[in-house]
Amino acid sequence: MKLRDILLGCASALACFSLNLTTAAAQDCPRGALDTRFCDVDGDLIADTPTDPSEWLDPDTLIFAYTPVEDPAVYKEAWSDFIDYLEEKTGKEVVFFPVQSNAAEIEAMRSGRLHIAGFNTGSNPLAVNCAGFNPFTIMASADGSYGYEMEIITYPGSGVEKVEDLRGKSLAFTSPTSNSGFKAPSAILKADFDMIPERDFEPTFSGKHDNSILGVANKDYVAASIANSVKFRMISRDVIKEDQLVTIYKSQTFPTTGFGVAYNLKPELQAQIKDAFFSFEWAGTSLETEFSKSNEAQFLPMNYKEFWDVIRKIDAANDVSYSCQ
């Protein structure tokens, strides 16, 4: 089945919403915060693969999406060598699908139209609990270190020299599901500075990290909260100059994009996909060319329960619900 057939086969979002929804809701099983469609018998906080083979997905064409943080054309090329390798390891056609928003990416996996994905830090818990996303790896540097920091940035001469100077001004977020683009700065501003959106500053939403960074660099936004890994890659590509930005706040290190699969892919296929991630040789590839700009050089095994603990705590501080709407 080709991508065009997959995408056009759904006449509307509501039609797609009902596809491939398994019936764990009818089962009496432990599931924690997971949607009622899923079970979590082993307590690892992610959806169990169905035990009934009739519920497994084994599509002829695998759809892969990378979190919508920057120019989709850049990342289609960046992932091209890895996708070729994934096709070799699985024996299936693999199509890169450039999603336009975190919500669209989550919905695509929830409805069975997305099989392999990288979800950004903030949307990982919602993808896990609502869409059955099973993350198992993140990118890391050659020495095994990983992650990024949330920064609040402004431009030279903006009149904003410290976080408190944002009172009465505007702050650009990216999207409500983004950790560094919304959830982390919201929790930090409230807890550490007693600053709340609309009461103390005017929030705006740019949609993506690169939009926020470019907006500040071009003085369209006074300030923005962003992931500095995106900033570093944009500086490396000469999209912006380092001296166009000033950082007034830098957070602790957070886990970066989590990569994984839909929970109900055939177990053998899931194993092949995992093997592709962990056996892929980065040297000389399009993936290395792009992601070495943020010092990433390998796929590191991880587990959601441990790595995303701090993100779930930030969500709890923000009263974020993982219920599917």
Automatic annotation (TrEMBL):
Gene3D superfamilies: Periplasmic binding protein-like II (3.40.190.10). Residues 1-26 form the signal peptide. It comes from the Bacteria. Pfam families: Phosphonate-bd. Keywords: Signal. The keyword Flavoprotein does not apply. PANTHER family: PHOSPHONATES-BINDING PERIPLASMIC PROTEIN. This is Phosphate/phosphite/phosphonate ABC transporter substrate-binding protein.
